[in-house]
Automatic annotation (TrEMBL):
Start and end residues of each Methyltransferase type domain: 51-145
UniProt GO BP: methylation
Positions in coiled-coil regions: none
Alphabetized GO MF terms: S-adenosylmethionine-dependent methyltransferase activity
Pfam families in UniProt: Methyltransf_11
Swiss-Prot/TrEMBL keywords: Methyltransferase, Transferase
PANTHER family membership: METHYLTRANSFERASE (PTHR42912)
Superkingdom classification of source: Bacteria
InterPro entries to which the protein is assigned, alphabetical: Methyltransf_11, Methyltransf_Superfamily, SAM-dependent_MTases_sf
Name this protein carries in UniProt: Class I SAM-dependent methyltransferase
Amino acid sequence: MRFLTIGGIKMKPSYQDALAYYGVNGAHPGGLSLTRYLLQQEKITSATSLLDAGCGTGQTSAFIKKHYPCSVTSIDLHPTMVKRAASRFHKENLPINLVQGSIEKLPFPDGSFDIILVESVLIFTDIRHSLKELKRVLKPNGVVLALEMTSERELTPLEQNNMRSVYGIEKVYSEGEWVHNLAAAGFRNVEIKLSHTVYSHMFANIEVEEEEMDVHVTRNLEMENKLTEHAHILYTYGNIIGYRVYRATL
């Protein structure tokens, strides 16, 4: 695993580095069970083109290709995630178009996809760019399904700083801010399909599959510490942060 080096100084690993190093599948709330539920609400046929934006290890993309007749394109920026996804698709003999690239500058023509699925990814980007890019590559009447971390109230500067230090994000947006930014990017219809805090999700009787991890990698304390920091955030702020599933159309 390579770390970013600036001026000869090795930078600490990011949360995404830790997920990639250990090959964590379904890191978003609800895991694959929630993804399955959301997809069941959509009309997906052999004519549907679907983009898994921020595909990670490729778990969701693989599930979709196995259970739906649509074409699937997967993109992720992290090189280790792309390698893991490529290995998964090869082993399972799945014809999925896998691309390494940024959601902030998608390497696809305008109007390429009918459905774009984004699972806990946008918050790690500059949403002023990434939301406009999703809109650009979406076909008329297309659908974006975005599952994103959301604050239940305005967070204090200290709380936002704590989030920023663990996740390397600009901020945790409220539901209203997410809806506003989606509208500002050009989406006409924005629905809230599901809403939970971290704590309410735990007690909502939602079927949750265990997060799978690669047990064959060498133990790395820096990576483990980053995952521990994430767990601490969930425990400390479980009543004031959560997630929403935003369904947006053109």
